[in-house]
Amino acid sequence: MSNQTPPERVLNTASNAPVEDKRNLEKALGHQIRALRRERELSVADLGAAAGISPGMISKMENGQISPSLASINSVANALNVPITALFSAFEERRDCSYVKQGQGVVIERRGTKVGHIYELLGAGLRGELIVEPYLITLEDAAEPYTGFRHGGIEFIYMLAGEVIYRHADQEYHLAPGDSLMFDAEALHGPAKLLKKPMTYLAIISYPRA
């Protein structure tokens, strides 16, 4: 009996994130056909008649339910009076990736009660329904405790150096290098006691795109 791990499990690792839909191309193609058809004020039956394809088949193409032949796609493109490449413009093979070299993140220095709290944004610009903001946070010798942070979304903290008593709502947590904390960021939170300075930790904030 083979002990090899099925390819699907290798690709998914330990995450429960959903597997990418294998019909992304078909769905993108269907979305573009529908958009172009509506721009021309054509019904499904009208487009089917012009392309020589049944309305039922056109509907399945628009809903991404089938992988149409190149001949069918070409017929639809001709009926819509667009080049065949225009039907694939909604599909992009490119996937976003944000790369930041050491020390080249966007630095945000706090003022007032948060002086000495330095935030370095490590990535930005990714698309999608979820915004993720990774920060490298440094609390310098001049930093003071501040527990008044409050914002939407979920925050994850991973301690890299130093030690801190971190408060979330009415609870306090002693964080040392290697410790982590994930919490609802709508509750008041922040470093309550700075035990060993300077200290650094990775903070990842995620929230739905408005």
TrEMBL record:
UniProt KW Thylakoid keyword: no
Keywords: DNA-binding
Residues annotated as domain HTH cro/C1-type: 33-87
SMART domains membership: HTH_XRE
Pfam family, one: HTH_3
Keyword DNA-binding: yes
Source superkingdom: Bacteria
The protein's name: XRE family transcriptional regulator
